Amino acid sequence: MLKLSNITKTFNKGTVNEKRALTGVNLELADGDFVTVIGGNGAGKSTLLNMIAGVYPLDSGVIELGGVDVSRLSEPARAKYLGRVFQDPMRGTAADMWIEENLALAKRRGQRRGLAWGISAEEKEEYPKLLASLGLGLETRMRSKVGLLSGGQRQALTLLMATLTNPQLLLLDEHTAALDPKTAAKVLKLTEEIVSERHLTTLMVTHNMADAIRLGNRLIMMHEGNIIFDVAGEEKKSLTVPDLLQKFEEASGGELTNDRMLLS
């Protein structure tokens, strides 16, 4: 479903601020894979997701989604293939628009727009049922502005919007990091349910090692712009946080000093 071949990216090339963000990343995801991605700050995790989404142009390499080479497509052109949820609950939605309007926009992602009614009668019946599945009471607030929702409600709505059209690939960029622990746990539970029910191929960046081990069928660790550890199946299920710390030291030749990861 996703194939990355020798992906490289350097920011501010040729200046004193030059940063090699990705240094030849190779990665393949099969249909239905749920892959968690961990690594310290500056490891290249978010840059990897941005490159897949088309936020930045590639320096070199090839990105294929469902067998289609999207390497040179713009970010809007890739939208029909992807769903994405960001760390900041304020991103991914239009704050001044109603909940039902946000859902209607998400349903038309990657499609041509015409002069038709923004929300059809069928959608007015469909959306409350979808919102009810979140268990947050949003189905009775269809005409509430999204900017009035709490961070957890907004992130859950963004998750629903990102998966509304069953994208070929779902990108989750630390989508619970800005939430309190109780709310984060609820959003993660919703994530598991939606990914499982819709059989979505998913790439989830997280700083929480315990979540990275518990969720999904595969885990990769990044360091200095490349993948240094890749584990799946039963081997992944048997991992512990101390195991991951040891693997990092073995693969990178140094200690993992990122406080957020150690505390998690």
Describe this structure in words.
This protein is an alpha/beta fold and 264 residues long. The chain has a single domain, classed as Rossmann fold (3-Layer(aba) Sandwich). Helix content is 35%, strand content 23%. It contains ten helices and ten strands. It has helices spanning 45-53, 75-78, 99-107, 121-132, 151-162, 181-198, 209-214, 233-237, 241-252, 259-263, and strands at residues 2-11, 19-29, 34-38, 60-65, 68-69, 82-85, 169-173, 202-205, 218-223, 226-232. It has a six-stranded mixed sheet with strand order 6-7-8-3-9-10, sandwiched between helices. 37% of the residues are buried.
What's the structural blueprint in terms of helices and strands?
Layout: E1 2-11, E2 19-29, E3 34-38, H1 45-53, E4 60-65, E5 68-69, H2 75-78, E6 82-85, H3 99-107, H4 121-132, H5 151-162, E7 169-173, H6 181-198, E8 202-205, H7 209-214, E9 218-223, E10 226-232, H8 233-237, H9 241-252, H10 259-263
Parallel strand pairs: 3-8, 3-9, 6-7, 7-8
Antiparallel strand pairs: 1-2, 1-4, 4-5, 9-10
Helix pairs in contact: 3-5, 5-6
In short:
The chain is 35% helix and 23% strand. The chain has 10 helices and 10 strands.
